[in-house]
Fold:
Amino acid sequence: MLVAAACCPCPPLLVPEVASGAAGELEALRAACTDAVGVLAAARPDVLVVVGPAEQAGRGPYPQGAGGSFRGFGVDLAVRLGPAGDAAPEPGERELPPSLAVGAWLLERAEWNGTPVEGLGVGEPLAGERCAEAGREIAAGKRRVALLVMGDGSARRTQKAPGYHDERAAGFDAAAARALGAADTAALAALDAELAAELQATGRACWQVAAGAAGDAALHGALLYNEAPYGVGYFVATWS
Structure:
């Protein structure tokens, strides 16, 4: 069953080494993410599942200790998913997609304890019902599950945004932020996948996975951060 969830954005700029001289601009966001991970730790889960958007090659499950890096962003920094112990990388090991690498970095920053960690890369185009089904599968059984859900809102909030401005972006993000902050699973399930794709909102599928995992559980939501630096919607929310 799902006992807690934290929803965080996944720009590599969250990592100060990647942001470099602009690192201070996102310090409030980093602090909110750290607080959100703290809510997961307080729930004392049996397992933490990190869910994030992924391209085709990065989809599917990842075991504890799976590695990723930020070399593609010009920084020689490696991370591992959860407490990896002394486990050596397997030959031909798949590298974590960027969203899960950011999630792994957040866990390292928060000094995540020995609770086992798994990862799941979700295709951004995945239909809502399939997202919900994936969430139900994660939460099935008697183990206490927590989710760290990575994903951004629209990348089209302003003219300087990566996707340029779209007047629909602010409304979409406002609805998503309200739903995340209220743990409103029905509202999250109702988010339009086609519109999300047009607005370059990478978090839609992962939020709907979380909604499926929560099901009818009476979780309390809180919105810790809701801003659009660089024209991209970033939200931090907790469910407990």
